[in-house]
Design goal:
By secondary structure, the protein is α/β, with parallel strands linked by helices. 41% of the residues lie in helices and 13% in strands. The radius of gyration is 25 Å and the shape is globular. The longest helix is centred in the first third of the chain and has 19 residues. It has a 7-stranded parallel beta sheet. A 5-stranded parallel beta sheet has the order 12-11-13-14-15, with helices on both faces. It has a 3-stranded antiparallel beta sheet with strand order 3-2-4. The protein has 2 domains: 220 residues, Rossmann fold; 150 residues, Rossmann fold, CATH 3.40.50.10140. Helix 10 runs parallel beside helix 11 and helix 15 runs parallel beside helix 17.
């Protein structure tokens, strides 16, 4: 690993020690292994996706496409040149999303990726791909427990916030700068023109929607791993993440590998003296990082997956946030493994409707917080959440609803004008737990503890 023992490595090491480096993860860093082939050689995730994509659209896979870092972009460009017709691009986008989801289920992050995201000095990551592989590689540890993800899309409402607030101790953040495939409607970059539009719109929206993220990116040094930019994308990306012109900036970029594109290499050599490169294999580079800076320690106590506590979605009017938080804290103490609270779990940049739908469907229980404040509101996100849960109820045999009333008096149909009619009248067919101000009685706590103890898992998948 002599390639890394030089002044560039010294500069990078000093910056990492100072906590001043943000890793930017490109497609070549996403090395994966097939779950049913343990010990097999790691493969680039997007080579798998792109190979199947080309076959689906009856285009012969070519080495010059599949071996390229940005294989997906190259393949889609070739497909659009060969295919025509209304809706073809959206059709390709849906198929890309399907293939990413498919391979995400049958592969696991390779050791190099797991080690990379486990370096304690790295807490904020920028992802240049639309998948969740980076998130999947991050396992809970004694050092880190919560992962917060923010995603940018030009199709999001111009007034929506997509920023990632300052990370607290024990949190890691991921910013998907080119979109996420979890929401086909909002979009993600699948070809070069897409990527160009994302960077342009990100720049124009930065002051309003991304002040925290862009401030961090422009303030700190960047370690670009497995990016291998083409000339135009490299120039645009580096200028975006710097406040000053490239020849005058104080921050540094470290490229591993160095810029392979001859045009980009010549440009950076002449105009960006603080952009430094590393030759050599990426996995060796990661090994040296881990050897020098360590990796996160595994949890001292791990919850057995065979006895996982149930999850619950708590839905409430914003006026009742304090009571909802009390209820959520109590549920965690009673044995629930996770509690979804929109203020805690919904990260800026997520498409809120898709994320909420997915969270409700995956939760083992749904807890609507009934109150005078909720009943008095003709509009509110919680009404939509309640409708989704009630639709799911038709397909669930076991208990799913856990209605909780937080008013001083026990809840009943007589107390509410809106909640007592229509679909939500279903809540009163269940036992409505009475928790004034969000404080559960000892009897109800014991009932909920028994629910956790009797939980079998996957009860309504």
């Amino acid at each position: 690993m002599n390639e890394f023992n030089d002044a560039n490595w010294f500069s990078l090491g000093q910056s990492i020690k100072d906590g001043n480096v943000i890793p930017v993860i490109g497609p070549d860093a996403l090395m994966v292994e097939l779950k049913d082939q343990p010990g097999s050689s790691p493969k680039p995730f997007y080579r798998l996706v792109t190979t199947d994509l080309l076959k689906t659209f009856q285009i012969e896979p070519q080495t010059e496409i599949l071996d390229h870092t940005w294989a997906l972009h190259k393949a889609v460009t070739a497909m659009l040149a060969n295919k025509s017709g209304p809706g073809i691009e959206q059709c390709i986008r849906r198929e890309v999303s399907r293939l990413i989801a498919h391979y995400s289920n049958i592969v696991q992050p390779a050791e190099s990726l797991r080690l990379l995201v486990g370096i304690p000095a790295f807490t904020l990551f920028v992802s240049l791909t639309p998948d969740k592989m980076l998130e999947h590689a991050m396992v809970p540890s004694d050092d880190f427990q919560e992962i917060r993800v923010s995603t940018f899309s030009p199709r999001d409402a111009s007034g929506s916030l997509a920023d990632l607030s300052r990370l607290r101790q024990g949190e890691r953040g991921i910013f998907q700068i080119l979109g996420s495939c979890t929401n086909v409607g909002s979009g993600f970059a699948i070809h070069e023109e897409d990527a160009l539009e994302y960077l342009y719109r990100l720049q124009s929206d930065a002051a309003r929607r991304f002040s925290n993220i862009l401030s961090e990116l422009r303030r700190r040094d960047k370690l670009l791993i497995g990016c291998n930019f083409p000339d135009w994308l490299g120039r645009a990306m580096l200028r975006l993440v710097n406040d000053n012109r490239l020849y005058a900036k104080d921050t540094s970029e470290f490229l591993c590998p160095s810029a392979n594109d001859a045009g980009l290499n010549a440009f950076l050599t002449q105009y960006s003296p603080n952009t430094l490169g590393f030759e050599g294999r990426l996995d060796e580079f990661v090994q040296k990082l881990v050897h020098t800076f360590g990796t996160v320690s595994p949890p001292q106590k791990q919850r057995s997956t065979d006895h996982r506590g149930p999850t619950v979605f708590v839905s409430y009017a914003s006026e009742n946030a304090k009571a909802a938080r009390r209820i959520a804290d109590t549920l965690l103490k009673l044995g629930f493994s996770d509690v979804w609270l929109d203020k805690k779990k919904l990260i800026g940049g997520d498409d809120w409707s898709d994320r909420i739908d997915e969270a409700i469907e995956k939760s083992d229980f749904f807890l609507p917080v009934l109150s005078r404040e909720a009943d008095g509101r003709p509009k509110g996100v919680f009404w939509r959440e309640w409708r989704i849960a009630l639709k799911l109820l038709k397909d669930i045999k076991d208990a799913f609803l856990l209605p909780v009333g937080i008013d001083p008096e026990p809840s009943s149909k007589d107390h509410y004008i809106r909640i007592s009619v229509g679909d939500t009248a279903e809540f009163f067919k269940k036992h409505v737990i009475h928790a004034p101000g969000g404080i559960l009685s000892a009897e109800d706590c014991e009932t909920l503890r028994k629910i956790c103890g009797n939980f079998q898992g996957d009860i309504h998948d």
